Predict the 3D structure of the following.
Amino acid sequence: MPHIAIISASVRRGRNSHRVALFFKRFIEESDSGTAEILDLNEYQFPVFNERLHFEPNPSPQVTDFAERIKAADGVLIVTPEYNGGYPASLKNVVDLLYAEWHRKPVAISTVSDGIFGGTQVITSLQFTLWKIRAWTVPAMFPVPSAPEAFDELGNPKDKTGIVKRAHAFIAELLWCIEAAKRMKN
């Protein structure tokens, strides 16, 4: 059974994207799609890194733990808000921290916004960054428009039928990429 690390990228108070991360953790586990853990950047509260982990002389145990969790995951699901057409500095910080850990790692992206476009403007810039570090971005996305109306604080969707249907298709793409990556290693 694949293990999926879910990066909850926002560190703001009242963050809506974390609701989507909570939903996906529960969805992945309840649908028997795999195991899942949330890597909450708000809990980590990393400083701004001045070098890749590989070149850090004395990385903190927290940084090493994060890197090991990304490396050990079969796939990664990034849940990111859109801030002014881009993704948050907290996410850019941890993406740039790692390199080898991202190599050919299947990465799915869910974008979240308060507006009607669901954070879709962020997808291009985030995909480009992930491509540059040789991650394998899944050819599906999961935009969430009007996030406060779509999910409650605990990650429960208000339109459960519609959200679950979309989530099945989205996670199926991630699982397909995870399986393909495993087969290519053999």
Remarks:
- The first helix runs from residue 17 to 30.
- The radius of gyration is 15 Å.
